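Blinded run. Sample ID left blank on purpose so nobody reads anything into the name before looking at the predicted structure. Input follows.
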Amino acid sequence: MSALDAPASALPGAADTIVAVATPPGRGALSIIRLSGGQSHEIGRAALSRWPDRPRQAVLSEVRDELGQILDQVVVVRYDAPSSFTGEDAIELSTHGGVVVPTTVVAALIARGARMATPGEFTRRAVLNGKLDILQAEATADLIAAGSRAAQRVALQQLDGGLSRRITALREKVLEIEALIAYDIDFPEEDDGPVAPARTLAVLEALESALRGLLATARGGELVREGALAVLAGAPNVGKSSLFNALIGRSRAIVTPIPGTTRDAIEAVIDADPWPIRVVDTAGLRSTTDLVERLGIEVSESYVARAAVVLCCGDDEASLRAATESVRAAQRRRGADENPLIAILTKCDLARDSRIDLSALGGEIGATAAIAVSAESGAGVQRLLMTIGEVLDNTVGLPELDAPVLTQARHQHAVAQALAELEAFRYAWRDERLPATIAAVHLHAAGDALRDLIGGIDTEQVLDEVFRRFCVGK
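Blinded prediction complete.
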């Protein structure tokens, strides 16, 4: 029996009533406290002066500690199992904000029998009680962490079950192939005759094609979720940090005339259309004997190797050529692909060399595009953002924000495993001419891989990993 097949009450700690503050700590108008579990209503009645007569009714009440002292005036909403987020009896308290009020209210609920929830425990219970599947639970965390509208749309689509339905449909195709093979094995002499191999092969080819198509969305899904990595690279003091600040619209990188000021990478996500861009300001690429700066340069090379697009910065022709050479050398040292480069002539407002033919220079140094910008005046900054989007469109394709996409390594691994098992079945069945009963083992493994993607998790450790990055209270 898998962890998701077991009743929630059979899992460690599942019978406890849990409590947590669901809103961020700090000064604010309101805080929301969630309580879920078999004793939540009993604990709520003991702590509150007024109790809702029916589910989902909001009631103004007072919450008291175990000594009867009033802690706050709250609004309480009651939820009855199974019609709650977790599928259990639950209540939500809207208290005044700050630190002291919600902390003392939580303490009063713990004193009456609740315990503090662990990160993601409310969502975990929703999964275990059949309110969500694993993909929808992951989408909940992605929606909270979304740093762009594109990431928000993809997470909402997944939360609505779009990816789950797609995976379910693909798994049903695996079962269809298994059924065709089983019919051929068990009923070879039926009136309809044996199943034609061409029929089974047609379903198999369509399924493999669909899995490859879904697997192809993984790159775009990662870029939407994390932001397409655009790395500012070049020699020190050519204007990378000034351009970084101009791109994100506020000063985050230190800008000084002293070479080597940036010692570590600084990141920010720009909510651009259609791709969110995770722009990174890095230490200048140059030879140095300074140990700290050398460590910063190694970090820069690591980012350059992983970048979806590298923004090679220089304030004249010589520094632009040097930036390109440094980037390509860093990619070779790291064994990385030579990803697209955009040559950026910074400080164009200073007109240091107005004779530069950027288009010709870009072609010479192998840049996909060449742009002149000024962080001081803002000239060329919007054009740069548009160019980054165009380069990503050409290399990755337009993001499919309203279609099921794979957004995490776990998704990609499961779909790739299912595809590999189907290919192994084809080889064993068609090329090796093994008995169908033996070759069908691969079909079963493919179905299991897709089932596990949605929720057939067999180990508690996998669940722990899925919910590890959740916030407490969710």
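Unblinding after everyone has recorded impressions. The chain has three domains: 8-133, 145-217+406-454, 230-396.
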